[in-house]
Specification:
Layout: E1 6-8, H1 9-21, H2 26-32, H3 37-42, E2 45-47
């Protein structure tokens, strides 16, 4: 049985806030990893890539 590796969305939000503080475009970062803000809000973890 194959296990799915996930990342807690709290950790993802923390990384995004650090990126934003350094001037990165959050919407562009989210598009790049194919995740929406709604998905982060709805789930406690997302699949790792």
């Amino acid at each position: 049985m194959e296990k799915t590796i996930t990342v807690p969305t709290g950790y993802v939000r923390h990384l995004l806030s650090m990126a934003e503080s350094q001037g990165f475009d959050l919407e562009e970062l989210l598009r790049h990893i194919d995740i929406t803000q709604a998905e982060l809000d709805e789930h406690s973890a997302i699949p790792a890539f």
